[in-house]
Write the structure tokens for this entry.
Amino acid sequence: MPAAVLDVMRAIEKMDDDGVKTVYVWLSNRFHGIIPQVSWDDIEEEEPDAFDLEMIQEIENNTDCNEYVADDDMFARLLADR
């Protein structure tokens, strides 16, 4: 997996709901046809399964997963990989 993808995933993990919504709207507009055009409210929230909980624990305990990437840097890295 490219480093930029990991950076994006790490950034999204640290964002609040509004930040994630901003990224989602940008991606769905930018990649129209690849990402289904649904509203944010159409996405159902699900409880984390055992794998998700294990991944969350790893993120909380692994200092390598705690790098903050600002929104501007994240978008610059995404655009650089195109």
